[in-house]
Amino acid sequence: MFKLEPRLRGLTAMDYRGSQQFDKFMLWIDAVGGFWVCLGDKVTLGQPTACGTVDVPILADISSRHARIRRDGEGYLIEAIREVQVDGLEVEKMAALSDGSRITLGEGVRLAFRRPHALSATARLDFASHHRTQPSADAVLLMADSCVLGPKSSSHVVCREWDEEVILYRHDEQLYCRTKAALTIDGVRYQGRGRITVNSHIEGEGFSLSLEGIRHS
What pTM does this model have? Predict the structure, then answer.
């Protein structure tokens, strides 16, 4: 089982990547939704387990380790551990994923793979079936270098009411947030950008979002 972690002051990206307990978090965006964010280059998809070894736990009739998505440089591959189809074709071992690929796990879990932003290697998995993660999220973000939130259709998360883009990005094993205007991170005001943790609250003119660490039980 996975649990959302209470706020831990001072926790950095290096802390949770090193412990393997905080290589994922929930991104809550006010008036938009919740998104499951994975930072690892290899991400396992499967049914939730008691030991919490699945990176993307999906409530469905699939194996506990059903498939693995791997970021390989600027591209993505999916490894079939159990029954997997990509664009209607059975995957025997490995298949490349591209923007718009349709993934089927088992007989019923359908996912749409997206690479919406041309300048970022970050990808997005949308549920095309009724299934969801546990805890429930609107989509899964496979975060590479950066994650773009904003009003443009090329954003990883489209926030139609926002005036400007807000970008989460990684640098020297740390997480940062930047935007064109001033922003407040955990009660401290910054001009343009600031370092964030896996449990930060960020707000600015017209937007508010929170990160919430996920730990294994």
Answer: 0.89
